[in-house]
Amino acid sequence: MYLQELQLQHFRNYQDADLQLGQGINVLLGENAQGKTNLLEAIYVLALTRSHRTANDHDLVNWQAKTAKVSGRVVKSAGTVPLELTFSRQGKRAKVNHLEQARLSQYVGQLNVILFAPEDLAIVKGAPAVRRRFMDMEFGQMNPRYLYNLSQYRTLLKQRNHYLKDLQHKQKKDLLFLSVLSDQLAAYGAEIIMARLTMLRKLEHWAQTIHAEISQQREELTFHYATQVPADQLTDAKTICDALTALYNKQRDKELYQGTTLVGPHRDDLHFQVNGKNVQTFGSQGQQRTTALSIKLAEIDLMKEETGEYPVLLLDDVLSELDDARQTHLLTAIQDKVQTFITTTSLSGITRQLIKDPTIFYVENGAVVADGSPRTGDSATKED
């Protein structure tokens, strides 16, 4: 899978841009605050219908316009697929092969991307919510069923939390409706937990090999999925569902008092261990960086295994955060394997030695200029 072309209209600081992209490594070269990250964001948005930088879609629309459009052409083994996203005050519309999609979940997965930026180190050392979001975003791309179950779960969770808050103000409490919501939430929650366990086992397999190579066989990386469901009941969706239902019953008084749902995949976490020790708590900065890099590179192989296509890799100023050894491993691993977009201020040193025949785009003073055959349109950029 690769992105053959990318068009932007009124997206962020770009008025218009039309880029013909290389199948290998594409380098977005320029000083800081020139708009490089906005181009990566556009590709990410085209894949997932949402930004990794903001939760407000209005931020994506150029301040001089009322709508923004991101479109592109994805080449897969089965053929070429045009994609289009339009953002406006009325919401967003998604088209696949020029046909509007009724649900965004039908759109996601047409273009698979993996983003690696300096802030992705938070996957290892950040809050549990960061790791839950990581699992949901990545697994949702690979598994439409996971995305559907997650959407249903979030809707029910919001409804259940709202009802719990309502019950706080009532003398006579209707626990029958709460029980119905709990049963429904447990069913979807069990599917999510089971899918996470399955995908994490596969991701761990790929990450272990990569981590061992980077650490020169001195370290072993393992994953642990932290949930309130007892370990001996993490066997199948039905058993997990029964366990969640029992936990809701056990926590009912506490949930009624606090007015919120205290059990389920929205409360779970993912722990990483290096040589048996929690790398989030006890690992060195180097071990944390190696763990994050191993996870991101493992995603490439996992997506290929699950979808039959390699994803597009987005590297946003990440090379400056890695030492020479980790840079070498990263660039060697992706060369001739996946289409990659790299933002950087310089191609000097080890980067230039390891990147073969890159397609280079110069981003400077509000314009994107291609070096070689790819062509681009003009763009208007104020800041990154």
From TrEMBL:
This is DNA replication and repair protein RecF. SUPFAM superfamilies: P-loop containing nucleoside triphosphate hydrolases (SSF52540). Belongs to the RecF family. Its main location: cytoplasm. Keywords: ATP-binding, Cytoplasm, DNA damage, DNA repair, DNA replication, DNA-binding, Nucleotide-binding, SOS response. The RecF protein is involved in DNA metabolism; it is required for DNA replication and normal SOS inducibility. RecF binds preferentially to single-stranded, linear DNA. It also seems to bind ATP. Residues 2-346 form the RecF/RecN/SMC N-terminal domain. It is found in: Cytoplasm. Pfam families: SMC_N. InterPro entries: DNA-binding_RecF, DNA-binding_RecF_CS, P-loop_NTPase, RecF/RecN/SMC_N, RecF_2. The keyword DNA repair applies. PROSITE patterns: RECF_1, RECF_2. NCBIfam families: recf.
